[in-house]
Write a structure and sequence with these properties.
By secondary structure, the chain is of the alpha/beta class. 33% of the residues lie in helices and 14% in strands. It has a five-stranded mixed β-sheet with strand order 2-1-5-3-4, with helices on both faces.
């Protein structure tokens, strides 16, 4: 690659040919503000916030779209460039509902931050605003076009990350809005509800549908026993909402905070993850030994489940029938836990703290009421959990570390913790399946081939003399080639892990929103890798690292379920799937 020499703010800079001014400036440690630009996803230059002055150029140029050239002289913060940026921001604000104090993105809004940095104190351009469209009909995602800046980051994320293209620009000129096709609701189209559009939106145009008030109502109802459970990935992200560095594990403080919120029991979904491995591992062995439908797909990602039901319904027999971990634990709480504690299941209110927006629609699936009651009553995202803690006046950083409640469902293994990262479900399953087939305790429980951020990972695994191929993927654009192979009957794999969000749950749509400045800039280890490291560090710290070694799991099967795949286990811990229509109004 040829090297280009240029000057940025009178500093000599070298850049590779083909780089943009923004790339070169970022590599040189010079920050140019952006709104529409999102590395590897979107660089339309439409927001005009990254305007820079280039010597001998007639107009200001957008840094995110202008390639570098030999001898180029760039001024990123000249008076002319700053004036151009202010004009761009003021024009955006002129068509924006500036209700910042009541906006879910207040103090974490990229438009708000840039306006502050540029010293925008008033809006000189006032007049009519584009007609507002507000959609809160889906279980997970809320759309408010009055806050949209038409940056197209959500559109390109849906198209390039998930390969769906659910979102687009509707109408023309001043009437243009961002919307699902035909300006339908999110509930009426083939949306995964993954929330990748939400975490990549720079403002409050897209957000999760909040269930905080529903949870507070339950906490204040004396007739309810309110039980909370937290997913593995939450501990790797929650601290960011309280100013801690990305990748800081906060397991102990999280348990302490939720206890102080008034929950009657505080459990870890990791127990449900260990339980999932027992059922899913058994299901895999049954399919391998008795000629079942292979390859088998994992089933713990509800966004992925929605995708296959819409896009590849002919492949539904390949899905594991095992419920996701929090749904399994919910079913256990409303059956075995209720019996042991003498509580009527109708009086148990289960709250799941999840990194995932799609979990909000998952709990509404009628197939997941097999205990006779809805397995989980409410889902709060990681972000909502932080808001609840702050609302209750709890000084999170001052809390001592506490354990989850240890009765009945309190123990978990390291294998369960890594569920939150891409490859973690596969590695957890291999630990248990290999140990059971080999008949001896694993000396080495780490399956390194399952780890990392590659779009598709594969490995050949020896299971007591039987060799199988496994594959791991996350995001639907990465998964699609694997699905096409299965559809064509040419897949060599026996077991495939699919996660709806790139990187897995650590990058779920309900996780803390990382600014584009971090996503676009140089961080060293990426934010997803830092969160992933927090989970693997906790895995290493656990005395037990194989799901089948969990003594409470063993007790549960001995005293209640019988064995993996038993009639009772099938009733409570397994589910079914069905084809979904792409548009629900025609």
């Amino acid at each position: 690659m040829a090297i280009v020499n240029l000057k940025i703010n009178n500093i000599d800079v070298q850049a590779e040919s083909g780089m943009t001014i923004l790339d070169a400036a970022t590599n040189a440690g010079i920050n140019i503000p952006t709104l529409c630009y999102l590395k590897d996803i979107n660089k339309s230059g439409s927001c005009r916030v990254c305007l820079v002055e280039v010597a001998r150029a007639r107009t200001l140029l957008s840094a995110c779209t202008t390639p570098v050239s030999e001898g180029m002289v760039v001024y990123t913060h000249s008076a002319r460039a700053l004036k151009g940026r202010r004009n761009s921001v003021e024009l955006l604000l002129s068509n924006h509902s500036k209700n910042c104090l009541s906006c879910v993105r207040n103090q974490n809004c990229e438009l708000q931050r840039i306006a502050e940095e540029l010293g925008v104190r008033e809006t000189r351009f006032e007049g009519d605003k584009t007609e507002r469209h507000y959609d809160d009909f889906s279980y997970g995602i809320v759309r408010d076009t009055s806050k949209c800046i038409l940056c197209e980051r959500c559109i390109q994320t849906c198209r390039k990350v998930q390969g769906l293209g659910v979102l687009g620009l509707e109408n023309r000129g001043f009437k243009t809005i961002m919307a699902p096709v035909y300006n339908l609701s999110f509930k009426d189209v083939n949306c995964m509800q993954c929330g990748q559009c939400v975490i990549n939106c720079p403002v409050g145009a897209l957000s999760e549908k909040e269930d905080i008030d529903k949870v507070i109502e339950a906490l204040n109802d004396p007739s309810k026993t309110v039980i909370v459970q937290t997913a593995p990935a939450v501990r790797a992200g929650l601290g960011e909402e309280f100013g801690l560095p990305i990748g800081t594990g906060v397991t102990g403080k999280m348990a302490a905070a939720l206890r102080r919120c008034g929950f009657d029991r505080v459990y870890d979904t990791n127990f449900g993850a260990d339980l999932t491995i027992m059922e899913e591992g058994n299901e895999l062995l049954e399919r391998v030994t008795h000629g079942g439908c292979l390859p088998m797909f994992t089933s713990c990602s509800p966004g992925w489940i929605r995708y296959i039901e819409f896009e590849y319904p002919e492949l539904l027999p390949h899905l594991s029938t095992s419920k996701s971990p929090h749904m399994m634990l919910g079913a256990m709480l409303k059956s075995h836990w209720a019996e042991r504690n003498g509580v009527d299941p109708k009086d148990i209110f289960v709250v799941s703290i999840m990194p995932c927006i799609a979990k909000k629609s998952e709990i509404q699936r009628p197939e997941c009421n097999t205990s006779g009651y809805q397995d989980v009553d409410a889902v709060l995202t990681t972000r909502e959990c932080a808001r609840l803690i702050k609302m209750f006046g709890i000084e999170f950083l001052e809390l001592p570390d506490e354990q989850f409640d240890q009765d009945l469902f309190g123990e978990y293994t390291g294998a369960a913790v890594i569920f939150g990262a891409t490859g973690g479900v596969m590695e957890a399953a291999l630990r248990t399946v290999k140990q059971q087939l080999d008949g001896t305790k694993l000396e080495k429980v780490d399956f390194e081939a399952c780890r990392g951020m590659a779009g598709v990972k594969e490995a050949e695994i020896d299971l007591n003399g039987t060799k199988i191929w496994i594959a791991i993927t996350s995001s639907m654009t990465a998964a699609k080639p694997l699905l096409e192979e299965v559809k064509a009957g040419t897949s060599k794999y026996t077991f495939i892990e699919v996660m709806g969000c790139p990187g897995g749950c650590i990058n779920g749509g309900g996780q803390p929103i990382v600014s584009s400045r971090i996503k676009n800039g140089k961080l060293g280890m990426g934010y997803k890798e830092l969160r992933m490291k927090a989970l693997y560090d906790e895995d290493l710290s656990r005395e037990l690292r194989v799901s089948s070694d969990n003594p409470q799991i063993q007790e549960l099967y001995r005293d209640y379920l019988g064995k993996p795949g038993s009639e009772l286990a099938e009733k409570l811990l397994h589910t079914s799937y069905s084809k979904k229509e792409r548009f629900n109004i025609f």
